[in-house]
Amino acid sequence: MTTPLIELQRVRFDYHDRTVLRELDFRLAPGDRVALIGSNGAGKTTLLHLLVGLKRPSAGRILAFGCERASERDFHQVRARVGLLFQDSDDQLFCPTVLEDVAFGPLNLGRSPEQARADALETLEHLGLADFAERITYRLSAGEKRLVALATVLAMRPEVLLLDEPTNGLDEATAERLIAHLDGLEQAMILVSHDWPFLARLATRAVRLVEGRLVDAILHSHAHAHRHSHPHPHAADELTGTHTGLEHRHPH
C-alpha cells in the first residue's frame, strides 16, 4: 500500500467549548485531488490549517510524509512541502511588489536570490502574470490578488496543494485559465470551494464535513430547465438509497 502524503487519525479540534471537528480519519494519496465541501462554518478552513500546523488538534494524530507531526519544528518541515492558499489573499501578500511576494517563499526555503527570482518570474509567466512583476501588490484588484497569492504558493514547488476558495474574485475567463493550469499539475490537492464547476473539473473524489465529521461525497451534474447542468454534492450513501440524515441542497 502506498504511504499517504497526509493522514489524520481520529483528529478532534475544539474551539473554546465547541467541538468543531470530531474523530476525523482521512488519507491523501499521491495524485489525489480531493474536494472538501460543507456549509459555511463547517470547519473546512480549520482542517486545512491543522494540516500545516497553524492550529493544533485537541486529540488524535497528524502524519505527513510518513512521520507523525506534533511540534512547531515538525510542521516547519511540513510547510516546506505543502502549499496553503489562504482564503483571504491579504493574509498571504505583504511585500511591496508582486515579484517580491512571489519570491519570498523560495527565499525562505533557502534558494539563492537569483534562483528565487527566476522561480518567481517563471511562475508568474505560467499564470499569465508576466507583466505583473513590478506592480504594487496593494493596488491590485481582488481577482489579481487571488492569482498572485496562488503564484506565491506555486513558486515554492510544493508536493501538496491546499487551496481555500481559489476562484474567489475571478471572472469566468480567468477561472478557466486557472483550472487549465491546475489540471496540468502533478501535485496532490485538497480543494475547498463553493464553485461547483471548478470542483467537478478538477476533483477525483469528494468528502463532506457534516456536524464535524467527514463523509464520502459524490459530485455530479443535474440538468435544469434553463438547458444546462450544474454539479451538486451528495453524500455517497445518499446515492445508493441509504438515509444519512443530510439535507440535500442544490447551491446556485
Automatic annotation (TrEMBL):
Signal peptide: none
Basic residues: bias regions: 223-233
Gene Ontology cellular-component annotations: ATP-binding cassette (ABC) transporter complex
Region (Disordered): 223-252
UniProt superkingdom: Bacteria
Alphabetical list of SUPFAM superfamilies matching this protein: P-loop containing nucleoside triphosphate hydrolases (SSF52540)
Pfam annotation, one family: ABC_tran
Record keywords, A-Z: ATP-binding, Nucleotide-binding, Transport
Domain ABC transporter: 6-236
InterPro entries in alphabetical order: AAA+_ATPase, ABC_transporter-like_ATP-bd, ABC_transporter-like_CS, ABC_transpr_CbiO/EcfA_su, ECF_ABC_transporter_ATP-bd, P-loop_NTPase
Listed GO MF terms: ATP binding; ATP hydrolysis activity; ATPase-coupled transmembrane transporter activity
PANTHER family: ENERGY-COUPLING FACTOR TRANSPORTER ATP-BINDING PROTEIN ECFA1, HEAVY METAL TRANSPORTER
Family, similarity comment: Belongs to the ABC transporter superfamily.
Entry protein name: ABC transporter related protein
Source species: Allochromatium vinosum (strain ATCC 17899 / DSM 180 / NBRC 103801 / NCIMB 10441 / D)
